[in-house]
Amino acid sequence: ETGVTQSPTHLIKTRGQQVTLRCSSQSGHNTVSWYQQALGQGPQFIFQYYREEENGRGNFPPRFSGLQFPNYSSELNVNALELDDSALYLCASSFGRAITDTQYFGPGTRLTVL
Amino acid sequence: KNQVEQSPQSLIILEGKNCTLQCNYTVSPFSNLRWYKQDTGRGPVSLTIMTFSENTKSNGRYTATLDADTKQSSLHITASQLSDSASYICVVSSGTYKYIFGTGTRLKVLA
Prior knowledge:
The complex is a heterodimer of chains A (114) and B (111). Chain A is an all-beta fold and 114 residues long. Chain A has strands spanning 5-7, 10-13, 19-24, 31-37, 44-50, 53-57, 64-68, 74-78, 87-94, 104-105, 109-113. The chains are: A mainly beta (114), B mainly beta (111).
């Protein structure tokens, strides 16, 4: 186990709704990255937070937003859910934001949009 | 276009046998390349990381190689075990923030 936890484990929403996913980073880590993993695909980078500031973003629309709190836990918010948002959402924490810092992944939240 | 392609898509081997997984990338600029193991229903776990100047890195029975000239990497698993059954994902980091994941190779080890 990596020490990174995510909640909830599973979630079912309908199209147009909003969802908030949560991630608690491993102790001592100040950087959290979020990924979307569609079935049978590799994860896709959504964004990264470093010390409460967004520190880089992948090719995702603005309806994907996030927060990082002073204790370095993080939230991923998705507005106006679409069917294609159905995926496993992974968060990963690391000691720092350097590209060489090892990321430790949580078990993921499985989101289903109906 | 920045891409990471892995082959084969899936692989079945007998316990105790060796196997090699391939990763080809067209990512530029290149920062580093990682191999991850992802068990079903779990997040990926880092196995190895290699920068431009490194051409081999080992982690127990896992050995990764990198040829930065041809933009190819391989992951060799020696004396496979049932617990090696998982997806193996190649990830190339580009610049400061970008992480580009391959779609993975699904390995099944049979007794």
